[in-house]
TrEMBL record:
Domain ATP synthase epsilon subunit C-terminal, residue spans: 91-138
Predominant location category: membrane
Lineage of the organism: Bacteria, Bacillati, Bacillota, Bacilli, Lactobacillales
Record flagged with keyword Coiled coil: yes
Protein name in UniProt: ATP synthase epsilon chain
Topology term for the membrane: Peripheral membrane protein
GO molecular function, one term: ATP binding
Length: 144
């Protein structure tokens, strides 16, 4: 079976590097599935989980990474994800993600109730999506 390399990079450096047999990512054009020898492509990513199916030599399980947008590039059997932030399922601090979710929900509720223009509703909604994404990925632990 052939495979490809997956690199997920943030401003802090490489957070994920592995061989894979399949990858699924959510792009702004829709869901993208990647197999070995995929055609070259560059696309913006949504805030969502990236699923990486490992090769049989690596146990054949799936890894999950919470990606907060960015860009995916596919070229020469290398999938590169460049993101402002991303966390593997094992590195997510669940209590911190839950606190972020609660803070975002409270800001959204306050903005809607008081019509407070000082609260940036758009930023609060994005913060909520990011927190929920992180929690969803953290919940994948051990389910491979």
């Amino acid at each position: 079976m052939s495979s490809f390399t997956v690199d997920i990079v943030t401003p802090d450096g490489v957070i994920y590097h592995h061989q894979a047999k399949f990858l699924v990512a959510s792009t702004q054009a829709g869901s993208l599935g990647v197999l070995p020898n995929h055609s070259p492509l560059i696309s913006p990513l949504n805030i969502d989980a990236v699923r990486i199916d490992l090769t049989e030599e690596d146990g054949g399980s799936s890894d999950w990474v919470a990606v907060n947008g960015g860009i995916i590039e596919i070229r020469d059997n290398v999938v590169s994800v460049l993101a402002n932030s991303a966390e593997t399922e094992h590195n997510i601090d669940v209590s911190r993600a839950e606190e972020a979710k609660e803070r975002a929900e409270a800001k959204i509720q306050k903005a809607k109730e008081t019509k407070d223009h000082d609260i940036d509703l758009g930023r609060a909604e994005i913060a909520l999506v990011r927190a929920v994404n992180r929690l969803n990925v953290a919940n994948k632990r051990g389910r491979n």
